[in-house]
Amino acid sequence: MTKKGSSKEVEEWVATVQVLKEGAFDVASHMLSELLGSRMKMSLVSCELDPEPKISPYGYLSFSGGEAKDVGGDSWITVKFPNVPKDFGKPGALLVESHHDNEFFLKAVTLETAIPIHFACQSWITHCRHNSNRPRIFFPNQGLLPKDTPEALVNLRSEDLSLIRGDGKGERDRSERIYDYDVYNDLGNPDNDKALKRPTLGGSQTLPYPRRCRTGRNRNTSDSKTEKTVFFDDGYVPRDERFSTSKMNLFMGSAVNAFGREVLPYLNELFDNDNHFDTFQDVYELYQGGLRSVKTFQGLFEKQSNKANIQFPPPAVVQGSKDAWAHDLEFGRQRLAGLNPFLIQPLTEFPMTSELDPLEYGPSTSTITSKDIELYLEGLSVEEAIKQKRLFVLDFHDAVMPYVNKINMGTNGRIYASRTVLFLTRFNMLNTIAIELSLPPPKKGLPAWNRVYKAPPPGITNWEWRLARAHVAAVDAGIHQLVSHWLRTHACVEPFAIATHRQLSTMHPLHVLLSPHFKDTMNINAMARSSLINANGIIEKSFSPGPYSLEISSIFYKSWRFDEQALPNDLIKRGMAVEDSTAKHGVKLLLDDYPFAKDGLDVWAAIKKWVMDYVGIYYKADSDVQEDPELQAWWKEVTEIGHGDHKGAPWWGHMKTIEELVQALSTLIWVASAHHAAVNFGQYAYAGFFPNCPTACVKLMPEPGSKEYETFSKDPEAYFLQTVSSAAQALTVISTVELLSTRFGEEEYLGQRSDPQWTSDPRALDALERFAAALSDIDAQVSDRNCNAAVSLFNRAGPALVPYTLLSPNPAPADSHTSDPGMTGSGIPNSISI
Question: Is 500 in contact with 634 (CB distance < 8 Å)?
């Protein structure tokens, strides 16, 4: 519609606004009519320079006004821009200014011009006082490098970034969108109890750590360097990073279901009384008859008038067979296809040696001898078995030893430094054959304690061996949760998310590429700091290291390298693969039946191909990488601030070539998606049955000739259960991993986008289709491999009959963007969202 009679011809433009029907907007329909009223304004910015700079230095602005009404449902609004100059030009930005105290979620705005222009907003609109009294800025769904930005939008692109960086001062408001960095100084609660004081992680070479999002909360009175803690979801997270209301409701509902309203009142009493399960039948009753059938809890239930019962679903590891978890072959298989397949490595020297000070930590040479293990080597000598790459090791010696005395003398937990030797049989099964447990000298110069335990013959139950293996499993569980899971995914990805918001404009193609891989990560991390990894939180109360848990993860961060997070590099570093140009993906596995690595390399290759295709659309030469100021600022901030304790490390590279860019982006996406899926979503399947994966041990090994050994000999099953996780610890972990293993209905998976109009570039859309097709092919390959589990690929299921599906990319139907909620055991979400 064109209007005449003024100095400039004007016309009316119409836009369709998609608003999420959630929160205040769900009940306050009067806000719809106010959207362009006195308290809500929308304006368009032209891509063309304004010939009258005094009106707008950025470009032509339309005059705010028009009507709003429902069309097709109350989450869709028609907005009219009635006085747009006919020579306005192509709109290049949308400004949304709110003076309303209620917030709403703006999903998208589509301008119904001859060629529709789509603004994929996906952001909460709050009062402009939370945005430095400036309107929110949105750009169309066309990715543009800085050098391609229309001149009229250059300043607006810069302003949009500066508005969310903050000034590093003051406490953040929950309605703000400020992204800034801080150290982990918010884990303790010394004002409440001096015993809850925890060291600051990050900002030092002694306890280095990735950075988290700054909140600016008040400091503790008793320790002014640390922040006060908050309860669960009360802390600051940038508004757009918080769970949606629907997901929070699902999350809290799942939490209530997992913990059970009837379980929570008992946990404190169970922790106080240090109850343990008496028999394995009591353990199985958790999944068969429920808590009321467990003798350990019957006294507690008698005190309660509530007659409800809580029954956990049987974990996968005991669904096929109650006892298969205890098989040495199953223990070995889980190092390749279980919760923590990132640690196994070939044995390359014998005897094994330590790099620690022998005066402080004991002999540098392992006490495992050839005589201890050659019986299991099918006629080979140790040297021959090493040469044939058939001996493997789980080495928890040097990394754990410095904390053994601290934990054993200062907490309720009991741990050993350990080395576990495994042998690849002629049937390609990984058999656990010997365990060395070690304690450092109680004082420097005194003798250390070392003991070697050997596997019993097949079919023979040896409870002393099972106890030794349980100690190894408990340390492995701690490293899994604190390092492979929390540190290497949650903590290490958060600085990348912060830097992406601070340095890459929302119109930057790389921001568009990466944003799905950060969804909900900062929210779940903040919740973890308040209830999972905090002082006296779930980890400290349920895992052997107790108050040293996060400190130990900091020690592992010292040797963390970003380049080694790429799956091929990780496998090569551990000696589990070698470069081979003739092999699929250029990497040859040492063990072909290594389910995590086999499936993972397929997923890695698909991710890298997708990234190469996408990056190639926008970067045609290495000079494009070098001359992209936003990309260079992003990389500089990640390497010098977000991961500032590794500033200057040569392995960061220089970000000067397309090859470096593709590798870095592929690594980041791999960690946020597949790596996290591999270590998170199988937790209930394996750790839901705590004897298989105890998170704590509270007794050391019984010494022959001692009263403890006499007690052990009389009832070894009871002694085993008295050694591993207590009832309170077990219930806490079972409930927690059930929650963490759950997928929620709004999850977005690799190869999927929640907004089908996420980009207007057909080349990028085609590349995503090819990526999704490649992932579907991988799904089929994983299924085929699992079908061969009983024939030639033993480790795909093993004695426990648990198929490896954690890296099966997409559990959803082809036309669905979400999988069915629950513990599906398959599907790779885009992000670390739980």
Answer: yes
Measuring CA to CA, how many Å separate 426 from each of 323, 378, 385, 589, 732? 24, 8, 11, 17, 41
- 339 dihedral zone (left: phi>0; alpha: psi -120 to 50; beta): alpha
Residue 310 falls in the annotated catalytic set = no
Catalytic residue of the set 100, 485, 643, 646: 485
pLDDT tens sequence across 705-733: 999 999 999 999 999 999 999 998 999 99
The CA R_g of the chain, rounded to the nearest whole Å, is 29
Using alpha carbons, select from 376, 413, 375, 421 the residue that is nearest to residue 397.
421
Tens of pLDDT, residues 729-769: 999 999 899 989 988 777 899 999 989 999 999 999 999 99
Alpha-carbon distances of 100 from 20, 115, 120, 473, rounded to whole Å: 17, 32, 22, 55
How much is the pTM? 0.94
Maximum distance among all alpha carbons in the chain? 107
The conformational region for residue 459 under phi > 0 = left, psi -120 to 50 = alpha, else beta, is left
508 is catalytic: no
* 380 CB burial (10 A radius; 0-12, 13-18, 19+): middle
**The three-state (H, E, C) secondary structure of 364-425, written as one string:** CECCCCHHHHHHHCCCCCHHHHHHCCCEEEEEECCCCHHHHHHHHHHCCCCCCEEEEEEEEC
Question: Model confidence over 373-397: pLDDT tens digits?
Answer: 999 999 999 999 999 999 999 999 9
**357-374: burial string, b at 16+ Cβ within 10 Å, e else:** eeeebbeeebbbeeebbb
Which pair of structure tokens corresponds to residue 111? 């301008």
Point out the catalytic residue in the list 680, 692, 795, 810: 680
Tell me which of 100, 130, 490, 508 is the catalytic residue: 490
Cis peptide before 351 (omega within 30 of 0): yes
Average pLDDT on 280-290 reads 91
* Catalytic annotation present for 676: yes
127 is known as an active-site residue: no
Among 676, 778, 795, 810, which one carries the catalytic annotation?
676
* Residues β-bridged to residue 104: 125
Cα 421 from Cα 391, distance rounded (Å) = 7
Q: Look at the chain and count its residues.
A: 834
According to DSSP, residue 820 is labeled: P
> What are the two backbone dihedrals, phi and then psi, of residue 421, each rounded to the nearest 5 degrees?
-105, 135
Pair 700, 723: CB distance under 8 Å: no
Catalytic residue list contains 680: yes
3-state secondary structure 99-132: CCCCCEEEEEEEECCCCCEEECCCEEECCHHHHC
What token pair was written down for 658? 């397309």
Query: 82: closest CA among 63, 58, 68?
Result: 63
Quote the CA–CA distance of 600 and 595 in Å, as a whole number.
Answer: 8
Which DSSP symbol is given to 49?
P
CA distance 562 to 321: 40
Give 232: exposed, middle or buried? Use CB within 10 Å, 0-12, 13-18, 19+: exposed
